[in-house]
Amino acid sequence: MPQHNSNKTKNILVTGANGQLGLCIKALQSKYRDLRFVLTDYEDLDITDLDQVKAFFKMNNFDYCINCAAYTAVDKAETEKELAFKINMTGAKNLAVACKASEVVLIHISTDFVFDGNNTRPYKETDATNPLSVYGKTKLEGETAIQKLLKKYFIIRTSWLYSEYGNNFVKIMLRLAETRNEISVVSDQIGSPTYAGDLAEVILKIIHIQSEDYGIYHYSNKGKTSWFEFAKAIFEEAKKKIEVTPIKTEAYPTAAKRPNYSVLDTSKIKKSLKIEVPFWQSNITKAIK
């Protein structure tokens, strides 16, 4: 059996380290002196290749694996099913297999898209899942594979992730504001925009306090809004003069069906980690700057 560090420094593998969440974790590295990070992306570690994953784990003495690697092109997944499943399900399963063999705790990031959006109150971890899209299905199957293989895991479902990094709604809106003076945004899909930096802090806190409250958790920023209201808030913060018109989902057809309501109940993670969850508006400025 691999020997684990009983001394202070914990070795953390981060997959998908060039995505927005991975980059937010990277930005927090200096704050956590007791953690040593091995940041990998597709070029360094192909999570869909089990042999490569096993070998990588054998070479390194990890204590935790944070899986930020994911296929997240929601509409494209409808036609690229195989690739989406390969990354979101097989990749998650491969990491779980390696984590089990090396006694590593897996922290896996999932999504509000595992729900169908028919709820009228925030979704609890115990609510029935029913994904509407291929993306949602692949993420749910990834969760299931992890649960079958591991006892020591944290699956964190999050929603509407944005930050100063990567490609996200805030960045898209700011780009559009450069070339347009009016824009239409869907107003009948309700959720909680979540700053990736806040989620990164939560993940590192789990490791820092060495929590053993394993299981599924929901984490998103506080409050709820529509894409339309979110867009308005972004332009306000960025001091951009642009007219935003609300439209219904039907007026903006997409390849993948999205949940109309995907607000997550975060009371479990708040209680377990004793954290305060910031409001969704609180870090828009940070992401813009």
TrEMBL record:
Kindly name one Pfam family recorded for this protein: RmlD_sub_bind
Q: Which reaction does it catalyse?
A: dTDP-beta-L-rhamnose + NADP(+) = dTDP-4-dehydro-beta-L-rhamnose + NADPH + H(+)
Write down the EC number: 1.1.1.133
Residue intervals of the RmlD-like substrate binding domain: 11-288
Q: Give the record's keywords alphabetically.
A: NADP, Oxidoreductase
- Molecular function GO terms recorded: dTDP-4-dehydrorhamnose reductase activity
Enzyme class, top EC level, equals oxidoreductase
Enumerate the InterPro entries for this protein. dTDP_dehydrorham_reduct (IPR005913), NAD(P)-bd_dom_sf (IPR036291), RmlD-like-bd (IPR029903)
Report the SUPFAM superfamilies cross-referenced here.
Answer: NAD(P)-binding Rossmann-fold domains
Family designation: Belongs to the dTDP-4-dehydrorhamnose reductase family.
Task: Extract the NCBIfam families matched here.
Answer: rmlD
Functional summary from the UniProt entry: Catalyzes the reduction of dTDP-6-deoxy-L-lyxo-4-hexulose to yield dTDP-L-rhamnose.
What this protein is called in its record is dTDP-4-dehydrorhamnose reductase
